[in-house]
Structure formats: C-alpha cells, structure tokens
Design a protein that fits this description.
- 34% of the residues lie in helices and 22% in strands.
- The chain is α/β, with parallel strands linked by helices and 214 residues long.
- It has one domain: Rossmann fold (3-Layer(aba) Sandwich).
- α2 links the parallel β2 and β3.
- Bound molecules: NADP nicotinamide-adenine-dinucleotide phosphate.
- NADP nicotinamide-adenine-dinucleotide phosphate (NAP) binds next to α1 and α4.
C-alpha cells in the first residue's frame, strides 16, 4: 500500500482542488469526496481526467490517506460525514481563524484544530500539514530552484512517514516538526503566512523554508 497509497480529498476548493490535481498528475490514485449537490468535475478536467469523484463516505472508505481541506468550522462535521475511518490517515490542511484587520488564530479549546479532530476521532491517525502556504503551492510546489516546505506534525510516526513520502514524491520538501501538539504552531505559522501575503504586501508567492548549515 505505501508504494501507491490511495488518496481521497474532501473539499475540492482552492486547496483540495489544486492538491488533488497535482497529486493525480504526479501519478497518485486520487478520488475527490464530494457532498450531495456538489461536484469536482472542473478540477477533474484540469487533472486531465486522472482523478475521480464519489460520495464522501465512498471516497473515504476507498482511501488509505484522506486530505481534509474544508472551512475550519466544518472540519469535524466533514470528518464525521466520512463514516468509520478508523485506522486511516487524515491530513488536516485547515486553519481556524477570524479576520480582524488581518488574520487571527481562533483555535478550539484543544489548542489546535488538529488536536480537536484527534480528540473527536481517536482511532483516526491525524497529521497536520499542507496548511502553511497558499493554494498556488498545492498545485505547483516548486519555487525557483527549490520547493516549498511541508511541515508535518503528528503522533503516529508511520502515518507521518506515509504523508512525508507522498509529499516527497509530489515535489514538496517534507519537514517533520514533531508531535501533534505542535500543530498549534503550524496553525500560527499559517496565520503569519496570511499576514505576510495579504496584509504586509509580500504577495502570495512566498513560503517558509528551513535553512540548514552544512
Ligand atoms: N486558500 C488557501 O490558500 C489556503 C491555504 C492553506 C490552508 N487553507 C485552509 O484550507 C481549507 C480550505 O480552504 P479553501 O480556500 O480551499 O476553501 P474553499 O475554496 O472555500 O473550498 C472549501 C471546500 O470545502 C467543501 N466543504 C465545505 N463544507 C463542507 C462540509 N461540511 N463537508 C464537506 N465538504 C465541505 C466545499 O465543497 P462544496 O462545493 O460542497 O461547498 C469546498 O469544496 C481552509 O480550512 C483553509 O483555512 C487555505
């Protein structure tokens, strides 16, 4: 399975749509899980017909790894709508925030949305990631001669390794940032990205990079 994990994407908007297109073009089996009355036809077309769509529970049941990219306040409800996903890997790409003359982190009482998901769905292997840059990078992770860092936080080492291998194969640079409690820092980092991109005049073609001497 780990050689070619099946990937479901719930939320076919800016982030989920772009990521699904890119992962499908990168050779992964991708299925969008869509709500009744919605469809992902446009993004499937952009993937060159390489991705598929089905209902959310069908996509979740089929998948090994599920990327969740919905409005943060819908994340728990959307995960519940997947049905029983015990043992599956859920990648939380979402950032809980409000706008008050700029982005403000509004985490749930658990400290981060990822921690709230892990608490609500204790048998699901939650990894926080793909959340600290704009959706343009989900479609094209390369920036000049380098590629955007995907910071990954999670308590399940194998789940994190699987997501890391997907990121690498798709041209991102994964960075393991430790346990799921560090998801709160990633959500804060995303708020900083939004501030820099949308309030401080840096624009959206920016990303955080871990620099290393030697
Ligand atoms: N935009 C960015 O640059 C960016 C970057 C990093 C992280 N994020 C985070 O990524 C998440 C998605 O952002 P986005 O910009 O991609 O949003 P978006 O373009 O508005 O797309 C949201 C998607 O979520 C689906 N959705 C909404 N409520 C749902 C529910 N209850 N159950 C299932 N699906 C539901 C929508 O489907 P329908 O068609 O059915 O409404 C839509 O496909 C947010 O949490 C955001 O904080 C965004």
């Amino acid at each position: 399975m780990s050689q070619n994990p099946r990937i479901a994407i719930v939320g076919a908007g800016n982030v989920g749509g772009n990521l699904g297109i890119h992962l499908a073009r990168s050779g992964f089996s991708v299925r969008f899980g869509v709500r009744e009355g919605s469809d992902a036809k446009e993004v499937i077309e952009k993937s060159g017909g390489k991705a598929e769509q089905s209902s959310i529970p069908e996509a979740a049941k089929w998948a090994d790894v599920i990327f969740l990219a919905v409005p943060a306040n819908a994340a728990v409800e959307a995960t519940r709508s997947m049905g029983d996903i015990s043992g599956k890997v859920l990648v939380d790409c979402n950032n809980p925030l409000k706008w008050d003359d700029g982005p403000v982190h509004t985490p749930p009482p658990e400290g981060s949305l990822a921690a709230a998901l892990a608490k609500a769905f204790p048998k699901v292997r939650v990894v926080k990631g793909f959340s600290t840059f704009g959706a343009e990078f989900h479609l094209e992770p390369k920036l000049g001669n380098t590629s955007i860092d995907v910071q990954l936080a999670g308590d399940d080492a194998q789940a994190k390794e699987l997501v890391s291998s997907i990121a690498t194969r798709a041209g991102f640079t994964p960075v393991d940032v430790g346990p799921l409690r560090n998801a709160a820092h990633l959500e804060s980092l995303a708020i900083l990205w939004i501030h820099l991109a949308m309030r401080a005049g840096q624009g959206r073609e920016i990303g955080f990079k871990l620099l290393k001497r030697g």
